[in-house]
Amino acid sequence: MTSSFGGPVLVGFDGSDGARGAALWAAREAVVRDRPVRLVQAVESQWSPAMTPGALPGYPPEPDLDQIRQALSELLESEAERLRRDQPALAVTVALVDGFASDALANEAENVDANLVVVGGSGHGALARTLLGSTASEIVHATSRPVVVVRSEAAHAPGSSVVIGVGGLGTGDHAARFALDFAARHKLPVRAVHGRSASPFALLVERLTTEQRNAAAAEQDVADAAVVAEVEAWREAHPDLDIQREEIDSQPVEALLARAADAALLVVGSRHRGGLQRVILGSIGHAVLNQAPCPVAVVREPSDDQG
């Protein structure tokens, strides 16, 4: 197993189409993992324009908290029934939790020892980003659990491979294990993508001395050898998996996105830095999380002081 998280697949739900797509994806993944699903709706005391009472079916015209809770409970139960119809053997529970969505979901994930957290790529809220919903963006920074962000259009697309980056493309040991485990569960090939963009020195090659050119070439050879060794280690650990190393002459983000178009999952890593209470997601991770059309898994690596 990728992690020791032994609880349910937790789904952040807000009634939006994005959340419904994510819930369906999570239900099918939970069956593969032999886990139950827990649908969680956060109850916030302040409402954005899109979530003003009355904006959704079942909401009262005035902000009465008891009525709001009742309406949300009915919404959750309705969604739970939809998931049970899609996956009759699946156990589904629901929960209303108080607080802002990202923090409430992170706390609930810890409380139930969630195996995985799944959220939609967009949802209700005035702060929703153009490409990525605010809750999805925040939850990847707030929890230690693996998070999968599922866009509405990707919820029903099976995908043909699992994509991970090698050679500094944001994938650490934990993220790699998650990706390989996912591929094994779904019997999918793995694409280990190595984006080889031109270095600043290469752009000035005519001005470099022979010694500098040789040093740059030697450095690239070392990096390439490390990538080969990394992928070979994965193949030895998973002899039944089809793991292909792909070198692409483009920027790392472009390389990953090029292979994400028909992927079942793209996996990136995040890291918890020292005394900070939030997770740091690198620039590559941010880019693919905002731009990848397929589901994206963000897997937390150990903090620097944990080794």
Compact description:
40% of the residues lie in helices and 19% in strands. It has helices spanning 17-33, 65-86, 101-111, 134-142, 173-186, 200-203, 210-237, 252-260, 283-291; strands spanning 9-12, 37-43, 92-98, 116-120, 147-150, 162-165, 190-195, 243-248, 265-272, 279-280, 296-301.
Structural class: alpha/beta
DSSP summary: helix tally: 9
Q: Mind summarizing the main beta sheet? A: 11 strands, mixed
Instruction: Name the CATH superfamily assignment of the largest domain.
Output: HUPs
**Proportion of β residues?**
15-25%
Main attributes of the structure:
alpha/beta; Rossmann fold; 2 domains; eleven-stranded mixed beta sheet; 19% strand; elongated
Task: Give structural notes.
- The structure is a single chain.
- The protein has 307 residues and is of the alpha/beta class.
- It has helices at 17-33, 65-86, 101-111, 134-142, 173-186, 200-203, 210-237, 252-260, 283-291; strands at 9-12, 37-43, 92-98, 116-120, 147-150, 162-165, 190-195, 243-248, 265-272, 279-280, 296-301.
- Strands 1, 2, 3, 4, 5, 6, 7, 8, 9, 10 and 11 form an eleven-stranded mixed β-sheet that branches.
- Helix 3 (101-111) crosses helix 4 (134-142) and helix 8 runs parallel beside helix 9 (283-291).
- The longest helix is centred in the last third of the chain and has 28 residues, at 210-237.
- It starts with 8 loop residues before the first strand and ends in a 6-residue tail after the last strand.
